[in-house]
Write a structure and sequence with these properties.
The chain is α+β, with helices and mostly antiparallel strands. The chain is 39% helix and 20% strand. The chain has a six-stranded mixed sheet with strand order 3-2-1-4-6-5, with helices on both faces. A five-stranded antiparallel sheet has the order 7-8-11-10-9. The relative contact order is 0.08. One of its GO terms (biological process) is tRNA modification. Belongs to the tRNA(Ile)-lysidine synthase family.
Length: 464
Amino acid sequence: MDQVVHSFMTKHQLIDRHQTVIVAVSGGPDSMALLHLMNKAKEKWAIRLIAVSVDHGLRGEDSAEDFAYVKRTCEEWGIKFVGTTVDVASYKKEKALGTQEAARHLRYEFLAKQMNDFAADVLMTGHHGDDQIETMMMQMVRNVRPEAVRGIPVSRPFATGRLVRPLLCVSKSEIQAYNSQYLIAPRTDPSNEDTEYRRNAFRKHVIPFVKGENPKLHQHMQAMSERVREDQSYIKKQAEEVLGIVQFSKELRKSAQFSIETFKTFPLALQRSAFHLILNYLYINNTEDISYLHEEMFFSFLNETKPNAELHFPRGLTIVRAYDDMMLSFQQEDFNTAFHQPLPIGETIELPNGDLLSAEWSEECKSEGSHVFVCDSHHVKLPLAVRTRRNGDRMRVRGMNGSKKVKDIFIDQKVSARARDRWPIVIDSRGEILWLVGLKKGGECTVGEPGLWLRLHYENKADT
Protein backbone atom coordinates (compact mmCIF):
# COMPACT_ATOMS: atom_id res chain seq x y z
CA MET A 1 0.00 0.00 0.00
CA ASP A 2 2.93 2.32 0.74
CA GLN A 3 4.04 2.48 -2.88
CA VAL A 4 0.51 3.02 -4.19
CA VAL A 5 -0.07 5.94 -1.83
CA HIS A 6 3.35 7.48 -2.48
CA SER A 7 2.78 7.30 -6.26
CA PHE A 8 -0.67 8.87 -5.81
CA MET A 9 0.80 11.72 -3.74
CA THR A 10 3.52 12.31 -6.32
CA LYS A 11 1.07 12.25 -9.23
CA HIS A 12 -1.18 14.84 -7.60
CA GLN A 13 1.68 16.81 -5.99
CA LEU A 14 0.05 16.54 -2.57
CA ILE A 15 3.20 17.39 -0.60
CA ASP A 16 6.67 18.79 -1.20
CA ARG A 17 9.88 18.30 0.69
CA HIS A 18 10.44 20.28 3.89
CA GLN A 19 6.77 21.10 4.39
CA THR A 20 4.83 21.08 7.65
CA VAL A 21 2.15 18.39 7.47
CA ILE A 22 -0.77 18.00 9.89
CA VAL A 23 -2.66 14.70 9.98
CA ALA A 24 -6.20 14.72 11.39
CA VAL A 25 -6.41 11.60 13.55
CA SER A 26 -9.54 10.18 15.16
CA GLY A 27 -8.05 6.88 16.33
CA GLY A 28 -9.99 4.90 13.70
CA PRO A 29 -8.44 2.50 11.15
CA ASP A 30 -8.11 5.02 8.31
CA SER A 31 -6.48 7.92 10.13
CA MET A 32 -4.18 5.62 12.14
CA ALA A 33 -2.95 3.92 8.95
CA LEU A 34 -2.38 7.34 7.35
CA LEU A 35 -0.46 8.61 10.41
CA HIS A 36 1.70 5.49 10.48
CA LEU A 37 2.41 5.68 6.76
CA MET A 38 3.38 9.38 6.92
CA ASN A 39 5.55 8.77 9.99
CA LYS A 40 7.50 6.16 8.01
CA ALA A 41 7.82 8.56 5.07
CA LYS A 42 8.74 11.72 6.97
CA GLU A 43 12.47 11.27 6.46
CA LYS A 44 12.04 10.55 2.75
CA TRP A 45 9.97 13.73 2.34
CA ALA A 46 11.92 15.64 5.02
CA ILE A 47 8.64 16.86 6.49
CA ARG A 48 7.61 18.14 9.89
CA LEU A 49 4.77 15.89 11.05
CA ILE A 50 2.06 16.86 13.55
CA ALA A 51 -0.97 14.82 14.65
CA VAL A 52 -4.15 16.68 15.60
CA SER A 53 -7.12 15.06 17.32
CA VAL A 54 -10.52 16.39 18.42
CA ASP A 55 -12.66 14.76 21.11
CA HIS A 56 -16.27 15.60 20.20
CA GLY A 57 -17.56 14.20 23.47
CA LEU A 58 -20.46 12.47 21.72
CA ARG A 59 -19.82 8.98 23.10
CA GLY A 60 -18.80 9.75 26.67
CA GLU A 61 -15.91 7.62 27.93
CA ASP A 62 -15.45 5.96 24.54
CA SER A 63 -14.68 9.35 22.95
CA ALA A 64 -12.22 10.19 25.71
CA GLU A 65 -10.50 6.81 25.33
CA ASP A 66 -10.17 7.35 21.55
CA PHE A 67 -8.50 10.67 22.26
CA ALA A 68 -6.18 9.17 24.87
CA TYR A 69 -5.28 6.33 22.48
CA VAL A 70 -4.18 8.77 19.78
CA LYS A 71 -2.14 10.82 22.25
CA ARG A 72 -0.46 7.70 23.68
CA THR A 73 0.35 6.30 20.22
CA CYS A 74 1.88 9.59 19.11
CA GLU A 75 4.14 9.52 22.16
CA GLU A 76 5.20 5.94 21.26
CA TRP A 77 5.87 6.85 17.62
CA GLY A 78 7.63 10.12 18.40
CA ILE A 79 5.04 12.34 16.72
CA LYS A 80 4.08 15.78 18.00
CA PHE A 81 0.48 15.71 19.23
CA VAL A 82 -2.09 18.50 19.63
CA GLY A 83 -5.65 17.85 20.77
CA THR A 84 -8.76 19.44 22.19
CA THR A 85 -12.25 18.65 23.46
CA VAL A 86 -15.22 20.52 21.96
CA ASP A 87 -18.76 21.10 23.19
CA VAL A 88 -20.84 19.86 20.27
CA ALA A 89 -24.15 19.96 22.16
CA SER A 90 -23.93 23.69 22.98
CA TYR A 91 -22.68 24.62 19.50
CA LYS A 92 -25.42 22.53 17.89
CA LYS A 93 -28.07 24.39 19.90
CA GLU A 94 -26.52 27.81 19.30
CA LYS A 95 -26.22 27.38 15.52
CA ALA A 96 -29.34 25.19 15.01
CA LEU A 97 -27.31 22.47 13.30
CA GLY A 98 -27.50 18.69 13.23
CA THR A 99 -25.14 16.75 15.48
CA GLN A 100 -22.79 15.58 12.73
CA GLU A 101 -22.72 18.98 11.05
CA ALA A 102 -22.00 20.76 14.33
CA ALA A 103 -19.19 18.31 15.11
CA ARG A 104 -17.68 18.82 11.66
CA HIS A 105 -17.78 22.63 12.01
CA LEU A 106 -15.97 22.52 15.34
CA ARG A 107 -13.45 19.94 14.13
CA TYR A 108 -12.45 21.90 11.03
CA GLU A 109 -12.39 25.15 13.00
CA PHE A 110 -9.79 23.62 15.34
CA LEU A 111 -7.85 22.12 12.42
CA ALA A 112 -7.75 25.50 10.69
CA LYS A 113 -6.42 27.07 13.89
CA GLN A 114 -3.60 24.53 14.07
CA MET A 115 -2.78 25.16 10.40
CA ASN A 116 -2.40 28.83 11.25
CA ASP A 117 -0.54 28.29 14.52
CA PHE A 118 2.04 26.00 12.91
CA ALA A 119 2.07 27.82 9.54
CA ALA A 120 1.35 24.39 8.09
CA ASP A 121 1.37 23.65 4.37
CA VAL A 122 -0.78 20.53 4.29
CA LEU A 123 -3.67 19.01 6.25
CA MET A 124 -4.23 15.30 5.59
CA THR A 125 -7.42 13.36 6.28
CA GLY A 126 -7.99 9.61 6.06
CA HIS A 127 -10.75 9.51 3.41
CA HIS A 128 -10.22 6.43 1.27
CA GLY A 129 -11.46 4.80 -1.93
CA ASP A 130 -14.57 3.26 -0.38
CA ASP A 131 -15.52 6.70 0.97
CA GLN A 132 -15.26 7.95 -2.60
CA ILE A 133 -17.61 5.21 -3.83
CA GLU A 134 -20.13 6.03 -1.08
CA THR A 135 -20.00 9.75 -1.81
CA MET A 136 -20.45 9.40 -5.56
CA MET A 137 -23.20 6.82 -5.21
CA MET A 138 -25.06 9.13 -2.82
CA GLN A 139 -24.59 12.05 -5.23
CA MET A 140 -25.98 9.94 -8.08
CA VAL A 141 -29.07 9.13 -6.04
CA ARG A 142 -29.69 12.75 -5.05
CA ASN A 143 -28.81 14.51 -8.32
CA VAL A 144 -29.56 14.19 -12.00
CA ARG A 145 -26.96 16.74 -13.13
CA PRO A 146 -23.69 15.04 -14.13
CA GLU A 147 -21.63 17.93 -12.77
CA ALA A 148 -23.08 17.26 -9.31
CA VAL A 149 -21.51 13.78 -9.21
CA ARG A 150 -17.98 14.92 -8.49
CA GLY A 151 -17.00 12.92 -5.45
CA ILE A 152 -14.42 13.91 -2.85
CA PRO A 153 -11.65 16.18 -4.15
CA VAL A 154 -8.08 14.93 -3.84
CA SER A 155 -6.97 18.40 -2.81
CA ARG A 156 -8.51 21.78 -2.02
CA PRO A 157 -7.41 25.07 -0.42
CA PHE A 158 -7.67 25.15 3.36
CA ALA A 159 -6.45 27.67 5.94
CA THR A 160 -2.75 28.40 5.30
CA GLY A 161 -2.33 25.63 2.74
CA ARG A 162 -4.23 22.71 1.31
CA LEU A 163 -6.38 19.85 2.57
CA VAL A 164 -5.32 16.60 0.86
CA ARG A 165 -6.54 13.01 0.91
CA PRO A 166 -3.73 10.56 0.06
CA LEU A 167 -5.76 7.40 0.75
CA LEU A 168 -8.40 7.93 -1.96
CA CYS A 169 -6.37 5.56 -4.11
CA VAL A 170 -6.78 2.57 -1.76
CA SER A 171 -9.72 0.56 -0.46
CA LYS A 172 -10.95 -0.07 3.06
CA SER A 173 -9.76 -3.67 2.90
CA GLU A 174 -6.25 -2.56 1.89
CA ILE A 175 -6.15 -0.22 4.89
CA GLN A 176 -7.25 -3.04 7.19
CA ALA A 177 -4.53 -5.26 5.76
CA TYR A 178 -1.97 -2.50 6.33
CA ASN A 179 -2.99 -2.14 9.97
CA SER A 180 -2.74 -5.89 10.48
CA GLN A 181 0.70 -5.96 8.86
CA TYR A 182 2.06 -3.29 11.22
CA LEU A 183 0.15 -4.50 14.31
CA ILE A 184 -1.86 -1.28 14.56
CA ALA A 185 -4.93 -1.75 16.77
CA PRO A 186 -7.22 1.18 15.93
CA ARG A 187 -10.30 2.23 17.83
CA THR A 188 -13.77 1.57 16.40
CA ASP A 189 -16.80 3.84 16.51
CA PRO A 190 -20.08 1.91 17.03
CA SER A 191 -22.06 4.80 15.52
CA ASN A 192 -20.59 3.82 12.13
CA GLU A 193 -22.97 0.86 12.22
CA ASP A 194 -26.07 3.02 12.77
CA THR A 195 -27.91 2.88 9.45
CA GLU A 196 -30.14 5.81 10.39
CA TYR A 197 -27.28 7.85 8.95
CA ARG A 198 -27.58 7.73 5.16
CA ARG A 199 -23.88 7.19 4.58
CA ASN A 200 -23.81 4.22 6.95
CA ALA A 201 -26.80 2.71 5.15
CA PHE A 202 -24.96 2.99 1.82
CA ARG A 203 -21.83 1.55 3.43
CA LYS A 204 -23.65 -1.47 4.81
CA HIS A 205 -26.21 -2.26 2.08
CA VAL A 206 -25.03 -0.76 -1.22
CA ILE A 207 -21.23 -0.78 -1.27
CA PRO A 208 -20.75 -4.55 -0.60
CA PHE A 209 -22.96 -5.35 -3.59
CA VAL A 210 -21.29 -3.00 -6.09
CA LYS A 211 -17.82 -3.96 -4.93
CA GLY A 212 -18.80 -7.60 -5.33
CA GLU A 213 -19.57 -6.78 -8.97
CA ASN A 214 -16.28 -4.90 -9.38
CA PRO A 215 -13.58 -5.19 -6.68
CA LYS A 216 -11.63 -2.35 -8.30
CA LEU A 217 -14.58 0.00 -8.27
CA HIS A 218 -12.80 2.43 -5.96
CA GLN A 219 -10.13 2.94 -8.62
CA HIS A 220 -12.73 3.53 -11.32
CA MET A 221 -14.68 5.97 -9.16
CA GLN A 222 -11.53 7.91 -8.33
CA ALA A 223 -10.61 8.16 -12.00
CA MET A 224 -14.16 9.27 -12.80
CA SER A 225 -14.07 11.92 -10.05
CA GLU A 226 -10.82 13.36 -11.35
CA ARG A 227 -12.05 13.42 -14.94
CA VAL A 228 -15.38 15.03 -14.05
CA ARG A 229 -13.60 17.72 -12.05
CA GLU A 230 -11.21 18.46 -14.91
CA ASP A 231 -14.06 18.61 -17.45
CA GLN A 232 -16.20 20.78 -15.21
CA SER A 233 -13.31 23.12 -14.51
CA TYR A 234 -12.97 23.73 -18.26
CA ILE A 235 -16.72 24.13 -18.79
CA LYS A 236 -16.97 26.52 -15.84
CA LYS A 237 -14.17 28.65 -17.28
CA GLN A 238 -15.99 28.79 -20.61
CA ALA A 239 -19.32 29.51 -18.88
CA GLU A 240 -17.78 32.49 -17.13
CA GLU A 241 -17.58 34.12 -20.57
CA VAL A 242 -21.38 33.86 -20.74
CA LEU A 243 -21.55 35.91 -17.56
CA GLY A 244 -20.08 38.79 -19.56
CA ILE A 245 -23.56 39.43 -20.97
CA VAL A 246 -25.18 39.40 -17.51
CA GLN A 247 -25.67 42.59 -15.54
CA PHE A 248 -25.24 41.88 -11.83
CA SER A 249 -26.52 44.35 -9.26
CA LYS A 250 -24.06 45.94 -6.87
CA GLU A 251 -26.75 46.59 -4.30
CA LEU A 252 -27.51 44.73 -1.07
CA ARG A 253 -30.48 43.03 -2.74
CA LYS A 254 -28.86 40.95 -5.45
CA SER A 255 -30.18 40.61 -8.98
CA ALA A 256 -29.03 39.47 -12.40
CA GLN A 257 -30.34 40.60 -15.80
CA PHE A 258 -29.60 39.52 -19.37
CA SER A 259 -30.89 39.40 -22.94
CA ILE A 260 -32.64 36.12 -23.62
CA GLU A 261 -31.70 35.96 -27.28
CA THR A 262 -28.04 36.71 -26.56
CA PHE A 263 -27.97 34.11 -23.79
CA LYS A 264 -29.38 31.50 -26.17
CA THR A 265 -26.58 32.01 -28.69
CA PHE A 266 -24.25 30.04 -26.39
CA PRO A 267 -24.15 26.20 -26.43
CA LEU A 268 -26.69 24.61 -24.11
CA ALA A 269 -23.99 23.12 -21.88
CA LEU A 270 -22.61 26.60 -21.23
CA GLN A 271 -26.10 28.00 -20.69
CA ARG A 272 -26.67 25.39 -17.98
CA SER A 273 -23.36 26.09 -16.29
CA ALA A 274 -23.91 29.86 -16.49
CA PHE A 275 -27.38 29.43 -14.99
CA HIS A 276 -25.88 27.70 -11.95
CA LEU A 277 -23.12 30.31 -11.66
CA ILE A 278 -25.83 32.99 -11.59
CA LEU A 279 -27.69 31.09 -8.87
CA ASN A 280 -24.46 30.73 -6.89
CA TYR A 281 -24.10 34.52 -7.02
CA LEU A 282 -27.69 35.17 -6.00
CA TYR A 283 -27.88 32.51 -3.30
CA ILE A 284 -24.26 33.13 -2.17
CA ASN A 285 -23.32 29.51 -3.02
CA ASN A 286 -26.12 28.19 -0.80
CA THR A 287 -28.19 26.36 -3.43
CA GLU A 288 -29.25 23.22 -1.55
CA ASP A 289 -32.91 23.96 -2.31
CA ILE A 290 -32.29 23.97 -6.07
CA SER A 291 -32.82 20.68 -7.90
CA TYR A 292 -32.74 19.59 -11.53
CA LEU A 293 -36.48 20.31 -11.62
CA HIS A 294 -35.74 24.01 -11.11
CA GLU A 295 -33.24 23.85 -13.95
CA GLU A 296 -35.86 22.24 -16.19
CA MET A 297 -38.40 24.89 -15.17
CA PHE A 298 -35.94 27.69 -15.96
CA PHE A 299 -35.04 26.45 -19.44
CA SER A 300 -38.67 25.79 -20.29
CA PHE A 301 -39.39 29.34 -19.10
CA LEU A 302 -36.45 30.66 -21.14
CA ASN A 303 -37.77 29.16 -24.34
CA GLU A 304 -41.49 29.86 -24.05
CA THR A 305 -43.09 32.37 -26.40
CA LYS A 306 -45.20 34.29 -23.87
CA PRO A 307 -43.63 37.78 -23.71
CA ASN A 308 -44.42 38.49 -20.05
CA ALA A 309 -44.29 35.86 -17.34
CA GLU A 310 -42.93 35.11 -13.86
CA LEU A 311 -41.28 32.07 -12.30
CA HIS A 312 -40.74 31.61 -8.57
CA PHE A 313 -37.78 29.79 -7.01
CA PRO A 314 -37.05 28.91 -3.36
CA ARG A 315 -36.47 31.61 -0.74
CA GLY A 316 -38.21 34.36 -2.66
CA LEU A 317 -36.17 34.42 -5.87
CA THR A 318 -38.40 35.73 -8.67
CA ILE A 319 -37.52 35.32 -12.33
CA VAL A 320 -39.30 37.77 -14.64
CA ARG A 321 -39.42 37.47 -18.41
CA ALA A 322 -40.29 40.69 -20.22
CA TYR A 323 -39.91 40.19 -23.96
CA ASP A 324 -36.15 39.79 -24.52
CA ASP A 325 -35.27 40.75 -20.96
CA MET A 326 -34.75 38.22 -18.15
CA MET A 327 -34.43 39.41 -14.56
CA LEU A 328 -33.63 37.23 -11.52
CA SER A 329 -34.09 39.10 -8.28
CA PHE A 330 -35.00 38.89 -4.61
CA GLN A 331 -35.97 42.55 -4.63
CA GLN A 332 -39.46 43.45 -3.47
CA GLU A 333 -41.07 46.79 -4.19
CA ASP A 334 -41.22 49.02 -1.13
CA PHE A 335 -44.18 50.99 -2.32
CA ASN A 336 -47.70 50.50 -3.58
CA THR A 337 -47.43 50.36 -7.37
CA ALA A 338 -50.66 52.34 -7.93
CA PHE A 339 -50.41 56.08 -7.26
CA HIS A 340 -52.09 59.39 -8.13
CA GLN A 341 -50.57 62.73 -7.15
CA PRO A 342 -50.80 66.40 -8.19
CA LEU A 343 -48.22 67.92 -10.53
CA PRO A 344 -48.14 71.67 -9.73
CA ILE A 345 -46.69 74.08 -12.30
CA GLY A 346 -43.31 75.40 -11.21
CA GLU A 347 -42.51 72.45 -8.97
CA THR A 348 -40.62 69.17 -9.11
CA ILE A 349 -42.25 66.15 -7.53
CA GLU A 350 -40.75 62.83 -6.52
CA LEU A 351 -42.56 59.70 -7.67
CA PRO A 352 -42.88 56.67 -5.34
CA ASN A 353 -39.87 54.95 -6.93
CA GLY A 354 -37.64 58.01 -6.54
CA ASP A 355 -37.88 59.34 -10.11
CA LEU A 356 -38.46 63.09 -10.57
CA LEU A 357 -41.05 64.93 -12.66
CA SER A 358 -41.18 68.71 -13.09
CA ALA A 359 -43.64 71.12 -14.78
CA GLU A 360 -43.04 74.71 -15.87
CA TRP A 361 -44.22 77.38 -18.27
CA SER A 362 -41.86 78.31 -21.08
CA GLU A 363 -41.93 81.12 -23.62
CA GLU A 364 -40.31 78.99 -26.28
CA CYS A 365 -40.82 75.54 -27.70
CA LYS A 366 -37.57 73.90 -26.67
CA SER A 367 -36.41 70.78 -28.46
CA GLU A 368 -37.98 67.61 -27.14
CA GLY A 369 -36.47 64.25 -26.21
CA SER A 370 -37.90 61.07 -24.77
CA HIS A 371 -37.80 62.63 -21.29
CA VAL A 372 -39.15 66.06 -22.25
CA PHE A 373 -42.75 66.93 -23.13
CA VAL A 374 -43.85 70.27 -24.65
CA CYS A 375 -47.32 71.35 -25.76
CA ASP A 376 -49.41 74.50 -26.38
CA SER A 377 -50.69 75.92 -23.11
CA HIS A 378 -54.19 76.64 -24.43
CA HIS A 379 -54.73 72.93 -25.12
CA VAL A 380 -54.16 72.01 -21.46
CA LYS A 381 -56.72 72.26 -18.66
CA LEU A 382 -55.13 72.68 -15.25
CA PRO A 383 -54.46 71.28 -12.72
CA LEU A 384 -52.18 68.48 -13.86
CA ALA A 385 -51.67 65.14 -12.14
CA VAL A 386 -49.55 62.04 -12.59
CA ARG A 387 -50.89 58.56 -11.97
CA THR A 388 -50.57 54.94 -12.94
CA ARG A 389 -52.70 53.21 -15.55
CA ARG A 390 -56.36 52.30 -15.19
CA ASN A 391 -58.52 49.80 -17.02
CA GLY A 392 -59.77 51.22 -20.30
CA ASP A 393 -57.17 54.01 -20.54
CA ARG A 394 -56.93 55.49 -24.02
CA MET A 395 -54.92 58.41 -25.39
CA ARG A 396 -54.84 60.49 -28.55
CA VAL A 397 -51.27 60.04 -29.69
CA ARG A 398 -49.72 63.08 -31.29
CA GLY A 399 -49.60 62.70 -35.07
CA MET A 400 -52.24 59.93 -35.18
CA ASN A 401 -55.92 60.01 -35.95
CA GLY A 402 -58.25 58.79 -33.23
CA SER A 403 -57.15 57.24 -29.96
CA LYS A 404 -55.28 54.13 -28.92
CA LYS A 405 -55.46 51.88 -25.84
CA VAL A 406 -52.65 52.45 -23.39
CA LYS A 407 -52.46 48.68 -22.98
CA ASP A 408 -51.73 48.30 -26.70
CA ILE A 409 -49.03 50.96 -26.54
CA PHE A 410 -47.33 49.08 -23.72
CA ILE A 411 -47.46 45.89 -25.77
CA ASP A 412 -46.11 47.60 -28.89
CA GLN A 413 -43.28 49.14 -26.88
CA LYS A 414 -42.52 45.79 -25.20
CA VAL A 415 -42.95 47.11 -21.68
CA SER A 416 -42.95 44.33 -19.08
CA ALA A 417 -46.24 43.55 -17.34
CA ARG A 418 -44.72 44.41 -13.96
CA ALA A 419 -43.41 47.80 -15.18
CA ARG A 420 -46.79 48.77 -16.70
CA ASP A 421 -48.42 48.86 -13.28
CA ARG A 422 -46.14 51.65 -12.05
CA TRP A 423 -45.55 53.55 -15.30
CA PRO A 424 -46.17 57.33 -14.83
CA ILE A 425 -48.96 58.88 -16.91
CA VAL A 426 -49.52 62.67 -16.95
CA ILE A 427 -53.14 63.85 -17.24
CA ASP A 428 -54.92 67.20 -17.14
CA SER A 429 -58.08 68.10 -15.19
CA ARG A 430 -60.30 66.53 -17.86
CA GLY A 431 -58.52 63.20 -17.49
CA GLU A 432 -56.94 63.66 -20.91
CA ILE A 433 -53.68 61.71 -21.14
CA LEU A 434 -51.01 64.17 -22.18
CA TRP A 435 -47.93 62.03 -21.79
CA LEU A 436 -47.25 58.33 -21.37
CA VAL A 437 -43.86 59.25 -19.99
CA GLY A 438 -40.96 58.24 -22.22
CA LEU A 439 -43.21 56.39 -24.68
CA LYS A 440 -45.97 58.44 -26.34
CA LYS A 441 -47.06 62.07 -26.30
CA GLY A 442 -50.46 63.62 -26.73
CA GLY A 443 -51.64 67.24 -26.73
CA GLU A 444 -51.09 69.79 -29.46
CA CYS A 445 -47.66 71.14 -30.34
CA THR A 446 -47.42 73.53 -33.29
CA VAL A 447 -43.70 74.17 -33.58
CA GLY A 448 -42.76 77.78 -34.38
CA GLU A 449 -46.02 79.36 -33.17
CA PRO A 450 -45.60 82.12 -30.56
CA GLY A 451 -47.21 81.74 -27.13
CA LEU A 452 -46.83 80.07 -23.78
CA TRP A 453 -45.71 76.47 -23.64
CA LEU A 454 -46.09 73.77 -21.02
CA ARG A 455 -42.83 71.96 -20.50
CA LEU A 456 -42.56 68.69 -18.51
CA HIS A 457 -39.27 67.01 -17.67
CA TYR A 458 -38.81 63.48 -16.37
CA GLU A 459 -35.62 62.35 -14.60
CA ASN A 460 -34.97 58.67 -13.98
CA LYS A 461 -33.16 58.03 -10.70
CA ALA A 462 -31.09 55.36 -12.43
CA ASP A 463 -29.57 58.06 -14.67
CA THR A 464 -28.54 60.33 -11.79
